DNA sequence: GCCAACGTTGGC
DNA sequence: GCCAACGTTGGC
């Protein structure tokens, strides 16, 4: 009853675009979470994410979807640069540098874990209420409560690379 | 590649 | 401001 509603974040990435290994190869093992073009997900980044919040790094739209890494929010929100890049698929002509529409935060990957598949996740009773498990869920960023995180902990098996 | 679900768009 | 059409997401 005491757990925080926005304790942690589940952040989806398509591994063909940015995989957990890609991020581990980046400077500071950190990536700007570019390309979010959904207002609800944007508002989470803009209003609710804080530096240091735990992150579940999730691979989606792939053969083996699931949680593959643990990280943390590593910056305040700032304008997503891809919205201004005319050749980017994320270009938004309705946005402007003066009044940016889309923001991102930096995400740092701390370590990889043995993949927790969607199926595994559904079998953890305390995780039943997780937004990512809800039917028709399409949000790329969803909050994870403190209770859900605690329930997940015993299932997180750190990999050593 | 299918298709259910849901967000966005735009005509009225 | 309604709502049908359309586009996108993402597991399967």
Notes on the structure:
The chain is of the alpha+beta class and 161 residues long. The protein has a single domain, classed as ph1033 like fold (Roll), CATH 3.10.590.10. The protein has four helices and eight strands. The chain has helices at residues 20-24, 39-48, 118-122, 146-152, and strands spanning 8-13, 30-32, 54-59, 66-73, 78-79, 103-104, 106-117, 141-144. The strands form two sheets. Strands 2-7-4-3-1-8 form a six-stranded mixed beta sheet. A two-stranded antiparallel sheet has the order 5-6. A hairpin with a 6-residue loop joins β3 (54-59) and β4 (66-73). The chain is globular, with a radius of gyration of 15 Å. The N and C termini lie far apart (36 Å). The mean pLDDT is 94. The structure holds a DNA duplex (12 and 12 nucleotides). InterPro entries: 5hmC_binding, EVE_domain, PUA-like_sf, THYN1-like_EVE. Residues 9-151 form the EVE domain. This is EVE domain-containing protein. It holds the Pfam family EVE.
Short account of what is shown:
The chain has four helices and eight strands.
């Amino acid at each position: 009853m005491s757990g925080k509603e926005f304790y942690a974040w589940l952040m989806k990435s398509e591994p063909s675009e940015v995989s957990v290994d890609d991020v581990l190869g980046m400077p500071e093992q950190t990536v700007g979470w570019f390309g979010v073009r959904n207002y609800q997900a944007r508002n989470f980044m803009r209003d609710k994410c804080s530096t240091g919040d735990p992150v579940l790094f999730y691979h989606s739209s792939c053969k083996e979807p699931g949680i593959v890494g643990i990280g943390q929010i590593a910056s305040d929100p700032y304008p997503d640069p891809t919205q201004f890049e005319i050749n980017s698929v994320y270009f938004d002509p309705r946005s402007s540098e003066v009044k940016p529409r889309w923001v991102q935060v930096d995400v740092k990957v701390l370590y990889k874990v043995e993949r927790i598949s969607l199926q595994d996740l559904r079998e953890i009773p305390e995780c039943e209420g997780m937004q990512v498990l809800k039917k028709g869920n399409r949000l790329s960023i969803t909050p994870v409560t403190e209770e859900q995180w605690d329930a997940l902990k015993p299932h997180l098996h750190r990999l050593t690379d």
